[in-house]
Amino acid sequence: MSVLLEVLKANEAYAASFGDKAKLALPPARRFAILTCMDARLDPAKYAGLSEGDAHVIRNAGGRASDDAIRSLVISYKLLGTKEWFVIHHSDCGMQLFDDEIMSGLLEKSLEGATIDETGWHDHGHGPGSVHGRYIKWHTFKDLAASVVEDVKRIRSHPLVPANIPIYGYYYDVKSGRLVEVPEATAVGRATA
Ligand SMILES: [Zn+2]
To answer: What is the 122 CA–ligand 1 centroid distance (Å)?
Structure first.
């Protein structure tokens, strides 16, 4: 079965037992938001105990505090009433495996897939590639805990983020399923009003 058919079939089963979820309100009932990585091993609904309607989950590569992630967080608070935010990165993140130079170099060679081995990244496409990768900040990182601190700091000091929202900094351990606090991040993210 193709992925498309699998997804549509799964959705049919989901909708068949949709029940009371039709009555859910738009604003998240538990009034919090999580910014986390898109990594397929992470399921925020499971690792943080969420049901439909509970919380906002904002995901991107790395769970980074990009301008667009901050856009979502500001909407989450200003228009939809969340009161606490989490930044949750994770161990073994793919964002630690490359940097802006590597990514833009690969994209210049071709737009097709690349693979990694002990000697680094290799592009297998035929090209042409594009220089447009040079104009994007890919938000990679080397140090996991430092990346959480950096993002909490960036959100905390953003002019559109009010001082009364606590921002908690954690990472998810892909080997144990546990959330591990980054105390320096949580300290930086403390609400100050
Ligand atoms: Zn990741």
So the answer is: 20
pLDDT digits (tens, 9 = 90+) for 106-163: 999 999 999 999 999 999 899 899 999 999 999 999 999 999 999 999 999 999 999 9
Residue 89 domain-assigned? yes
Task: Please tell me the distance between residue 77's alpha carbon and the centre of ligand 1 in angstroms.
Answer: 25
* Helical H segments across the chain, by residue range: 3-16, 44-47, 67-78, 100-109, 144-156, 183-189
Tell me: the pLDDT tens digits for 19-58? 999 999 999 999 999 999 999 999 999 999 999 999 999 9
- As given in the structure block, the two tokens for residue 12 are 């049919």
Tell me how far the alpha carbon of residue 35 lies from the centroid of ligand 1, in angstroms: 12
CA of 146 to the centre of ligand 1 (A): 14
Q: In whole angstroms, give the CA distance from residue 185 to residue 58.
A: 18
Same-domain check for residues 73 and 41: yes
For 131, the domain range is 99-137
